[in-house]
Design a protein that fits this description.
The structure holds two protein chains of two kinds. By secondary structure, chain A is of the alpha/beta class. Chain A contains eight helices and ten strands. The longest helix of chain A has 16 residues. Chain B is mostly helical. Chain B has 17 helices and no strands. Chain B is globular, with a radius of gyration of 22 Å. The chains are: A alpha/beta, B mainly alpha. The interface between A and B is medium-sized, with 28 and 28 residues. Chain B: It is found in: Cell membrane.
Chain lengths: 274, 421
């Protein structure tokens, strides 16, 4: 592990998940996985459908509770039993299709669930629009459609709104589920720029994807999972696409990085635990 | 034209509806030889529309949250029966006949029971997860059956004297003077709202409408209020009724003072009040915002911390409250409560809401659209009745209009709504 954390030895991890186990009806969905995330770092969590990556992340975002294992936020153990607990720990999740109400406009979506109200208890839409313009302008200076329903926005603009929503909650850890799924080339580039900017602001970002190409260029590190176990964690600069594909498909660490293999990795064909 | 409308920030669908309504009115007026657009017919139209219009306001919220309520007509029936018994059998045991508190207590009891009935259905939908279509289909049978059991089928009459005013009979209006006062207040409120909204947007340096558009908008809204009130004030009491009214007050009858205006009927005032309150709820409160969020994306709403189940109960309970108000209006208008009151009203209400532009897929809908939808439905029915069209043919026409309305809405929406606008 030592050579991998060289660049971040000065700081503590924002979030660490240690030895997480969870099973559903006898199936070990996540089996002893540990991952970490540092400030200003983008980490991809990769794996096929069913590899356990979404389950692992849902434990962090409070949708599921681990059977055993620890979640450590800022060096302290945190209890995350629901979405509110996650939010209290400044962990925000942007779900692929669940994030926005299509019929509401950007400001209404940004403030959904914590609207600004005036002294009579009525919604203060002007104040919310004002704040929304501020936050969205910082993220995406080209954003103009503040009063149309978000269904009228492009995929990239919708992602801007979803990310702005997380920022308003003062997120320090941002979990993005398939952030580039169903986006065009230009839109994907735009989301990439957004992520770069958040990174500079010191947020830690976890990108969940089953598609290597979506996250390879965005990520500083990759955690690869297969069959509920961590195949390994690698720095993007140390590996090629083919190396990572091998990890995803075969559950096999590249030869030159075997010393970094996780507990679930084998050098042969993938172990099945079904 | 379309650029003009977008500058004025007018809902295109609303303009379409208004045009349709105007065509219907002018068409019937020509066909009936000038008997449709008269103060008398407009007055009657407003009274006849009131009951469905009140329920339509609540149905908008139900449908926006992706539910449906098929039981509103039956709930209206059972509540009318209960309120009938309360005011004729129950309260007179404690209060004098026609006691001024009778109608208030009656309405209050109706509203509470209505909220309870709606709330129970909401619980079944929200917490037990039974589809609203099934819960309220069952409710339709349960509450219609219950309406019979209240008196074993006996029609309750006569109703309390003050209660009957809610139905807008000859005395159920507020008269000329008060009508002008209401009009003045409404126009001042329209101007005030426009100024405040503009000021607020300017204070944040947001883009605002051009000044001429503000003036035009305000002028149209204010003008509409003035036209409606003038029309209603132009409808005078029948000579016989006017004579009786003057004699009761001990005023000598002369040809001049026989011209007594009806003014705004009380049921129309109730509709206006319900519509204004619910519009404020929808646009300016968390409750309203959450209703639309749930309709747009229930999972997103849940993830944002909205208690979707509790909201479902609240929306159905609100529907029950509005059924109670409608029950009061309908039974007061007929001056009696029968257990078949409100039969098929659920279909009229849903049709009005859908014609008014509310999407059955949820998330989209307006209160004012539903009101115009209700007025379109009632205009068709009254117009055909005026022309002596058979009831069976009336049903056929209204059924076709409903389908046509939804089709044209879909068609125009697809054609003219520019997703990048």
């Amino acid at each position: 592990m030592t050579d991998m954390t060289d660049m971040t030895t000065k700081t503590d991890p924002l979030v660490e998940m240690r030895d997480i186990h969870i099973s559903f009806g006898g199936v070990k969905a996540v089996d002893g996985v540990s991952i970490d995330l540092y400030p200003g770092e983008v980490v991809g969590v990769l794996g096929h459908n069913g590899a356990g990556k979404s389950t692992l992340i849902k434990i962090l975002s409070g949708a599921y509770q681990a059977d055993s294992g620890q979640i450590i936020v800022d060096g302290k153990e945190a209890k995350i039993e629901n979405a509110r607990d996650a939010r209290d720990n400044n962990i925000e999740t942007i779900y692929q299709n669940l994030a926005l109400a299509d019929n509401l406009d950007a400001a209404q979506n940004l403030f959904l669930g914590r609207e600004i109200i005036d002294r009579f208890g009525f919604l203060d839409d002007a104040a919310m629009e004002h704040k929304a313009r501020e936050v969205l302008h910082r993220l995406n200076p080209n954003f103009k459609k503040f009063t149309s329903p978000v269904s009228a926005l492009s995929g990239g603009q919708r992602q801007s709104v979803a990310i702005a929503r997380a920022l308003l909650f003062e997120a320090r850890v941002l979990i993005m589920d398939e952030p580039c799924a169903a986006l065009g080339v230009h839109e994907t580039k735009m989301v990439g720029e957004l992520i770069d900017q958040l990174k500079r602001d010191g947020l830690g970002i976890l990108l969940i994807s089953h598609d290597l190409h979506d996250v390879f260029d965005l990520s500083d590190r990759l955690h690869v999972m297969k069959n509920g176990k961590l195949v390994g964690s690698v720095r993007t600069e140390d590996v090629t696409h083919d190396d990572v594909l091998g990890m995803i498909i075969l559950g096999k660490m590249p030869e030159h990085l075997m010393h970094l293999a996780g507990p679930g990795a084998t050098n042969g064909p993938a172990a099945t635990n079904g | 034209m379309s650029r003009l409308l977008s500058k004025m920030e007018v809902d295109r669908r609303l303009v379409g509806l208004a045009v349709v309504l105007l065509i219907i009115w002018i068409g019937f007026d020509i066909a009936s030889g000038g008997r449709f657009i008269t103060p008398r017919n407009i007055f009657n139209l407003s009274v006849q529309t009131a009951s469905v219009a009140v329920m339509a306001c609540g149905m908008v919220l139900i449908i926006v949250t992706r539910h449906i309520d098929l039981s509103v007509g039956a709930i209206l029936g059972v509540l009318a029966m209960i309120m009938g018994v309360v005011q004729t059998d129950l309260l007179p045991q404690f209060l004098d006949y026609n006691h001024p508190a009778t109608w208030i207590l009656t309405l209050l009891i109706g509203v509470v029971i209505g909220a309870g009935i709606g709330g129970i259905q909401g619980l079944a939908v929200g917490y037990l997860g039974v589809p609203a279509f099934i819960v309220t289909l069952g409710g339709l049978l349960v509450w219609r059956g219950s309406a019979w059991w209240v008196t074993q089928g006996r029609t309750v009459a006569p109703l309390d004297h003050n209660f009957i005013l809610l139905g807008g009979g000859i005395e159920g209006t507020i008269g000329a003077t008060w009508s002008w006062i209401v009009a003045a207040i409404a126009i001042l409120a329209i101007i005030y709202a426009a100024i405040m909204e503009r000021r607020r947007r300017l204070s944040f340096e947001f883009p605002v409408k051009p000044v001429w558009a503000e003036y035009t908008n305000t002028l149209i809204k204010g003008g509409l209020v003035l036209v409606v009130v003038t029309t209603l004030n132009a409808y005078h009491l029948p000579t016989r009724a006017a004579e009786r009214l003057l004699e009761n007050k001990g005023i000598p009858v002369t040809p001049e003072n026989l011209e007594i205006s009806h003014g705004i009927p009380i049921p129309l005032l109730i509709v206006a009040l319900v519509a204004i309150i619910l519009t404020i709820v929808v646009k300016r409160t968390r409750f309203g915002r959450y209703i639309f969020a749930i309709g747009g994306n229930p999972q997103a709403a849940e993830l944002a911390g909205i208690n979707v189940k509790r909201m479902t109960v609240a929306v159905f309970a609100l529907m029950g409250v509005l059924c109670a108000i409608s029950a009061a209006i309908s039974s007061a208008r007929l001056q009696s409560a029968g257990n078949d009151l409100g039969t098929l009203d659920e279909l009229r209400v849903i049709a009005a809401v859908v014609i008014g532009g509310t999407s059955l897929a949820g998330g989209v809908g307006t209160i004012y659209g539903a009101l115009i939808g209700a007025l379109v439905m009632q205009s068709l029915q009254s117009g055909m009745a005026l022309l002596g069209v058979d009831t069976s043919l009336q049903s056929i026409v209204i059924g076709l209009v409903l389908v046509l309305a939804v089709f044209s809405d879909k068609y125009f929406h697809r054609r003219y709504s520019d997703p990048t606008a």
